[in-house]
Amino acid sequence: MDIQNPAVDLVLQSALLWSGMIKKADLQLSVHGISFSEFCILHRLFQAPQHRLSRIELASAVGLSASGVTRLLQPLEKMLLVEKEQNARDARVSLVKLSDSGQQIYQDAHQTFGFFANQFMSPLTSRQQDTLAELLARL
């Protein structure tokens, strides 16, 4: 029986590409003592107003569950890269804030990740990168 489905092949190829990219990004970011997932957390916090978000907002921003974000935050808290902060309006909601040392590590790691991203995307022209960005946004 011949079962061919280009969509299945494309999704599997994308998953393999993504997995390889994560491994390479982890290797590059390891010089800063963080993983790609941790970099994503720091990136979203750095972009947030006053460098703080609720755990739920952070989970949504990085595509993880609230418990997944909590597990990622524990080592970042131990490394003093993020801090817990109470919400002044609602004591039941805790915020995650990027610490001063977290901001410094993020900025250093961002430079490293920028070099990695440029190298990773180098087989594509600028126009191809724009097209890929459009296609990914549509998915």
Q: Can you tag this structure with a few keywords?
A:
139 residues; mainly alpha; Arc Repressor Mutant, subunit A; 3-stranded antiparallel β-sheet; 6 helices; MarR/SlyA-like; DNA-binding; Transc_reg_Sar_Rot_HTH; transcription regulation; WH-like_DNA-bd_sf
Your description of this structure?
The chain has a single domain, classed as Winged helix-like DNA-binding domain superfamily/Winged helix DNA-binding domain (Arc Repressor Mutant, subunit A). It is 66% helix and 9% strand. It is built from six helices and three strands. It has helices spanning 6-29, 36-47, 55-62, 66-78, 100-121, 126-138; strands at residues 52-54, 82-86, 94-98. It is globular.
Low-confidence stretches: none
Mean pLDDT: 93
Helix content: 55-70%
Residue share in β-strands: 5-15%
How many structurally independent domains? Answer: 1
Note the overall shape: globular
Fill in the CATH topology: Arc Repressor Mutant, subunit A
Separation, N- and C-terminal Cα atoms: 30 Å
Mind summarizing the main beta sheet?
A: 3 strands, antiparallel
Order of helices and strands: HHEHHEEHH
Structural class determined from secondary elements: mainly alpha
Q: Order of strands across the biggest sheet?
A: 1-3-2
CATH class: Mainly Alpha
Q: In CATH, what is the homologous superfamily?
A: Winged helix-like DNA-binding domain superfamily/Winged helix DNA-binding domain
**Assembly state (oligomeric):** single chain
Return the CATH architecture.
Orthogonal Bundle
Radius of gyration computed on alpha carbons: 18 Å
Number of strands: 3
What's the helix count?
6
